[in-house]
TrEMBL record:
<feature type="transmembrane region" description="Helical">
    <location>
        <begin position="728"/>
        <end position="746"/>
    </location>
</feature>
<feature type="transmembrane region" description="Helical">
    <location>
        <begin position="218"/>
        <end position="239"/>
    </location>
</feature>
<dbReference type="GO" id="GO:0005524">
    <property type="term" value="F:ATP binding"/>
</dbReference>
<keyword id="KW-1278">Translocase</keyword>
<dbReference type="InterPro" id="IPR023298">
    <property type="entry name" value="ATPase_P-typ_TM_dom_sf"/>
</dbReference>
<feature type="transmembrane region" description="Helical">
    <location>
        <begin position="654"/>
        <end position="674"/>
    </location>
</feature>
<dbReference type="InterPro" id="IPR044492">
    <property type="entry name" value="P_typ_ATPase_HD_dom"/>
</dbReference>
<feature type="transmembrane region" description="Helical">
    <location>
        <begin position="74"/>
        <end position="92"/>
    </location>
</feature>
<feature type="transmembrane region" description="Helical">
    <location>
        <begin position="686"/>
        <end position="708"/>
    </location>
</feature>
<feature type="transmembrane region" description="Helical">
    <location>
        <begin position="779"/>
        <end position="806"/>
    </location>
</feature>
<feature type="transmembrane region" description="Helical">
    <location>
        <begin position="755"/>
        <end position="773"/>
    </location>
</feature>
<dbReference type="Pfam" id="PF00122">
    <property type="entry name" value="E1-E2_ATPase"/>
</dbReference>
<dbReference type="InterPro" id="IPR018303">
    <property type="entry name" value="ATPase_P-typ_P_site"/>
</dbReference>
<dbReference type="GO" id="GO:0005886">
    <property type="term" value="C:plasma membrane"/>
</dbReference>
<dbReference type="InterPro" id="IPR023214">
    <property type="entry name" value="HAD_sf"/>
</dbReference>
<feature type="transmembrane region" description="Helical">
    <location>
        <begin position="622"/>
        <end position="642"/>
    </location>
</feature>
<dbReference type="InterPro" id="IPR023299">
    <property type="entry name" value="ATPase_P-typ_cyto_dom_N"/>
</dbReference>
Length: 823
C-alpha cells in the first residue's frame, strides 16, 4: 500500500501515474506481485511416493497374506512405510526450499505519482511507474533510466561481472541488481513475472528430480519383475491350490490360506525390497556424514551423482577466489626522482584511508597495515569517484594522485607509453593495476573548488592488486586432475583476468590454460560442444551461456557438476547434473542447488566426491547381494509352477534368512570405506554377478524339494508335519548358500570382512536354538535321519554353487581376453 510520507527528492517535470492509472494497471495484472508456489504440491509429492510400482507389489502381497490370517508372514510389508516416509520427507524439504526461493528482496520503494513522491511496497509497483533507485536499494523491476545522479549498479549477481557498472540516461536496469552509489529515476518497463529476475526465478523453481543410476537400475529390475510377478503369482496360487486337492477342497478345508502364503513367498522373494530401502538409507547416512563437514545435501540422490561427475564447471568468484581483494605489491617506476618507497607506501595508505574505502582501498589498508603503516596527516583530500576514476591527497611530502593508469596518464604532460606497457603486462597476469603520481608542493591545489589532475605530476609507482585466491584452490584442483575430472572456469569477468587466475592455481597442471571470450562462442549447441573440448576458461559469460555450456557438455554424455554463488549461476546449476552452491551464495542459487558448501570452502569438494564414490561402489556390492535373491526366487517359483510341488519355504523364512545373509550385512557393507572410481555399467555387472549364485541356489532348493521327500518317505502333500520338515531343511540350505554368497560379495575376506561373515553365520545357527525365534520363524533343529538329509543336501548344494560360480568366472575371463584380442 502507498505511504502518506512524502520524501524530498530532486524535482522532475513529469507528474507520473495517477491513482486511476495505477488501479487500471493493477486490475490488468501489470503489478509487481509474483506467485511463490513451486511446481509440486504436497498432494503431488505424497501421491508420487505412495503410488509407486514397488509399493504396489509389496502392498498387494502383504494384503494377500493378511487375508489368510498369517500376520507373521506379512512383516516384510513394513519396508513400505519406512521407504515411503524417507521419500516424502526428502521431497517436502526440497519443496520448502523451492517455495522460499526469491531473487528479489521485498522492501518499500519510492515512486513518483500524481506529481509527488510516495513510498510503496514491492508488490505495489506497476508498469510505467516512475521509480527512484537509491544507493543501497535492490532494483525491484526492470526499467529504463530517465535521469541519473551518478548511479552505479552491482550486477554481479545477475551477470557474474565483479565490477560495478556506471549507468547513464537511456540505459536499461534489471531487477536483482543493487545500487552501490548515486541515484536515478527510471521508468518501469517490466514487472512481476515478466521482469528479468522473475524469469530466472521461474526457471529455477521448476522441480527437477535428480537422476540416480542406482534408482534407475532398481526401477528397471522392478519393471522387469512386474511382467514376471503378476502372471507368476497367479500361476503360483493355482499350482498351490492343486497341491492341496484343487480349489473346491482348498476352500472347503481352509487350506487355501496356506496356498496363498506359499505363493506370496515366491513373489516377495523376487522383489529386492531391502535394496530400495537401503539405497534411501545409505543416501541419508552419506548426507549426514557430509553435513558434519559443513556440506548440506538437499536431494539425497545427488550423493550418488557425485560419484559419476567427470566435468566440473567452476565459477571464479566465490569458488577459486573468495570475493576479496589482496594487495600484491607496490612497484616503483624508473625515474621516480628519488622519492622513497616508504613515502610512496605511506601516501598509498593515506589515499586509501577514506571514510568508506572500496574493496581495493580495504585491501591496501590491510596489506600495508601488516607492514606497520598507519594513517598520517592529510591536509586536503579528493575522495575516489568512479566518475573521475582517481583520488588525491595533500600531505607534507607533496600532492599524491591514485587511480586508473590510463586516466591519470592521459591528463599528464610527457610521454609515458612505457608505463602503460607495464600496466598492460601486469593486467594480463590477472592484476588490478593502479597508478600513483606525485607532484612536489608548490601552490596548494584548490581541490574543493576545482578537483583536477595536475599535468605536472609524474608517475612514481604501480600498485598491483588481485582477487584473493583461496589457499586450498590449487590443491583441490590437483586432486580433481588426478581423479580424471575435467575442470573449467566459467566467469562473467574479463577472460584475460580469469585466464591469469587459472594459471596461478594450475587449473590444467603443467599445460597453459586456454581461455576464450564467451562473446565469440557459437549459439549452436553442437558447435559449442566441439569448441569446449579445447577451452579451459571462459570469460564474459552470460547466464544463458552458462546453461548452454552445460547442455553442450551433456551432448557428449558428460556428467556435469556446476559451482556458483550468484543469481547468474542459477540456470546453469539447475541444468547441471549436480548444482553446488557456496554458503555465501544468493538465496536463489542455494535454493536450487543439490549441494551447498555451508562454509564456502572449495576444499570440501573432494570429500563430497569421495563420499559419492563410496556410496556408488558399495551399493553395487549390496545390489549384487539382493539380486541373487531375486534370481533364485524367480527360478524356484517357475520350477514350482512347472512341477506342481508345494512351495519349498515360507515368507517368514525369507524374512529371517534375508535379514542375516542380506539385509544387515548389506547395511554394513554399504557404509564401508571405498574409493573406487565410478565405472559405467552398474546394472550389467550386478546381473552378471547375481546370475550364477541365483541359479545355484534355485537348483539346490528345487533338487532338495524334488528328491528329498522320496528319499526320506515324507508325504509333503498330505502331511503338514512332513511339509514343515522339508521347508525347514530348505531354510537351512538357503541360509548356508546365503552365507557363501555374502562371503563372495564381501571379498577380500581379510580383517573385519571375514569376521563379519563368520558373525552372521554364527548368529543364524544360534537363532535356531532360541525357542522364541525358532517358533516365530518356523525353524526346526535337525536331528537323526533329518540331520543326515540336511548334510547330504548341503554337500550337493555346495558342489552346485562352486560349479556355477567357477563357470561364470571362466566365461568372464574368456570374454575379457576376447575383448583384449579384438583391440
Amino acid at each position: 500500500m502507498e505511504s502518506a510520507t512524502t520524501v524530498a527528492m530532486p524535482s522532475i517535470d513529469e507528474p507520473g501515474l495517477s491513482a486511476r492509472d495505477v488501479a487500471e494497471r493493477q486490475a490488468d495484472g501489470h503489478g509487481n506481485a509474483m506467485k511463490t508456489s513451486s511446481s509440486r504440491s504436497i498432494k503431488d509429492i505424497i501421491r508420487a511416493n505412495v503410488f509407486t510400482l514397488f509399493n504396489g507389489i509389496i502392498l498387494g502381497a502383504m494384503l494377500l497374506v493378511l487375508l489368510t490370517g498369517s500376520w507373521k508372514d506379512a512383516v516384510f510389508g513394513f519396508v513400505i512405510i519406512v521407504n515411503t516416509g524417507i521419500g516424502i520427507v526428502t521431497e517436502l524439504r526440497s519443496k520448502r526450499t523451492l517455495d522460499k526461493l526469491s531473487i528479489l528482496v521485498a522492501s518499500d520503494y519510492l515512486v513518483h505519482r500524481d506529481g509527488g513522491d510516495v513510498e510503496v511496497s514491492h508488490d505495489a509497483i506497476v508498469l510505467d511507474d516512475l521509480l527512484w533507485i537509491r544507493s543501497g536499494e535492490q532494483v525491484p523491476a526492470d526499467g529504463t533510466i530517465i535521469e541519473t545522479w551518478g548511479l552505479e549498479l552491482d550486477e554481479s549477481m545477475l551477470t557474474g561481472e565483479s565490477r560495478t557498472v556506471r549507468k547513464k540516461a537511456g540505459d536499461e536496469v534489471y531487477s536483482g541488481s543493487t545500487a552501490v552509489s548515486g541515484m536515478a529515476l527510471i521508468r518501469v518497463t517490466a514487472v512481476g513475472e515478466h521482469s528479468y529476475a522473475a524469469k530466472i526465478t521461474a526457471e529455477a523453481k521448476v522441480f527437477k528430480k535428480t537422476t540416480s543410476d542406482l534408482n534407475k537400475g532398481i526401477n528397471t529390475i522392478l519393471k522387469v519383475m512386474t511382467f514376471v510377478v503378476v502372471p507368476l503369482c497367479v500361476l503360483l496360487i493355482w499350482s498351490q491350490m492343486r497341491t492341496v486337492g484343487g480349489w473346491s477342497q482348498a476352500i472347503a478345508t481352509g487350506q487355501w490360506r496356506q496356498a496363498v502364503v506359499s505363493a506370496v513367498a515366491g513373489v516377495v522373494g523376487m522383489i529386492p525390497e531391502g535394496l530400495v530401502l537401503l539405497t534411501s538409507l545409505n543416501f541419508a547416512v552419506a548426507a549426514m556424514r557430509l553435513a558434519r563437514k559443513n556440506t548440506l545435501v538437499q536431494e539425497l540422490e545427488s550423493v550418488e551423482t557425485l560419484a559419476r561427475v567427470d566435468c566440473l564447471n567452476l565459477d571464479k568468484t566465490g569458488t577459486i577466489t573468495d570475493g576479496g581483494i589482496a594487495l600484491n605489491q607496490v612497484t616503483m617506476l624508473a625515474g621516480a626522482n628519488g622519492i622513497a618507497e616508504h613515502d610512496v607506501k605511506q601516501a598509498l595508505f593515506d589515499l586509501s584511508n577514506e571514510e568508506q574505502p572500496n574493496g581495493t582501498g580495504k585491501a591496501v589498508l590491510e596489506g600495508l597495515g601488516r607492514e606497520g603503516f598507519s594513517g598520517g596527516a592529510v591536509d586536503a583530500r579528493v575522495p575516489f569517484s568512479s566518475a573521475r576514476k582517481w583520488s588525491a591527497i595533500v600531505s607534507d611530502t607533496g600532492v599524491w594522485f591514485m587511480g586508473a593508469p590510463e586516466v591519470i596518464i592521459s591528463a599528464l604532460n610527457g610521454a609515458y607509453d612505457h608505463v602503460l606497457d607495464m600496466v598492460n603486462r601486469n593486467a594480463n597476469e590477472g592484476n588490478r593495476v593502479l597508478l600513483i603520481a606525485h607532484q612536489s608542493i608548490g601552490a596548494a591545489p584548490d581541490f574543493e573548488e576545482n578537483p583536477r589532475l595536475d599535468p605536472a605530476a609524474e608517475p612514481v609507482a604501480l600498485v598491483l592488486c588481485s582477487e584473493r585466491i583461496r589457499s586450498d584452490a590449487e590443491s583441490t584442483l590437483a586432486w580433481f586432475r588426478e581423479q580424471g575430472v575435467r575442470c573449467r572456469i566459467i566467469s562473467g569477468d574479463n577472460p584475460v583476468t580469469v585466464g591469469a587466475i587459472a594459471r596461478k592455481v594450475r587449473l590444467t597442471g603443467e599445460r597453459e590454460p586456454v581461455y576464450m571470450d564467451a562473446r565469440e562462442l557459437p549459439d549452436d549447441i553442437d558447435e559449442l560442444a566441439d569448441v569446449l573440448q579445447n577451452v579451459d576458461v571462459l570469460g564474459r559469460v552470460l547466464p544463458n551461456q552458462k546453461k548452454a555450456v552445460v547442455q553442450a557438455l551433456h551432448r557428449d554424455d558428460h556428467v556435469v557438476a556446476m559451482t556458483g554463488d550468484g543469481v547468474n549461476d542459477a540456470l546453469a546449476l539447475k541444468e547441471a547434473d549436480l548444482g553446488i552452491a557456496m554458503g555465501n551464495a544468493a538465496p536463489a542459487t542455494k535454493a536450487i542447488a543439490q549441494v551447498v558448501l555451508v562454509d564456502s570452502k572449495f576444499s570440501h569438494l573432494p570429500d563430497v566426491v569421495a563420499r559419492g564414490r563410496q556410496v556408488m561402489a558399495n551399493m553395487e556390492r549390496v545390489a549384487s547381494l539382493f539380486l541373487v535373491k531375486t534370481v533364485y526366487s524367480a527360478l524356484i517359483s517357475l520350477g514350482v509352477v512347472l512341477t506342481q510341488i508345494p512351495f519349498p519355504y515360507l515368507p517368514r523364512h525369507i524374512t529371517y534368512l534375508g535379514g542375516l545373509t542380506i539385509g544387515v550385512p548389506a547395511f554394513i557393507l554399504a557404509l564401508a570405506p571405498n574409493t573406487r572410481r565410478y565405472i559405467p555399467g552398474f546394472l550389467g555387472r550386478v546381473v552378471r554377478f547375481a546370475l550364477p549364485g541365483g541359479i545355484a541356489v534355485a537348483l539346490s532348493i528345487l533338487l532338495s524339494t524334488w528328491i528329498l521327500p522320496g528319499a526320506m518317505g515324507w508325504d509333503i502333500t498330505g502331511n503338514p508335519a512332513d511339509l514343515a520338515k522339508l521347508r525347514a531343511v530348505n531354510a537351512i540350505i538357503l541360509f548356508v548358500l546365503g552365507i557363501l554368497v555374502l562371503a563372495r560379495v564381501a571379498q577380500p575376506l581379510t580383517g573385519w570382512r571375514g569376521l563379519m561373515v563368520l558373525a552372521f553365520a554364527a548368529a543364524g545357527a544360534l537363532g535356531m536354538f532360541i525357542p522364541f525365534i525358532r517358533r516365530f520363524f518356523a525353524l526346526i533343529v535337525p536331528g537323526g535321519s533329518m540331520l543326515v538329509a540336511v548334510l547330504i543336501a548341503l554337500a550337493i548344494a555346495a558342489v552346485i554353487f562352486f560349479i556355477c560360480v567357477g563357470t561364470a568366472r571362466m566365461l568372464a575371463r574368456r570374454g575379457k581376453a576376447g575383448i583384449a584380442a579384438g583391440k
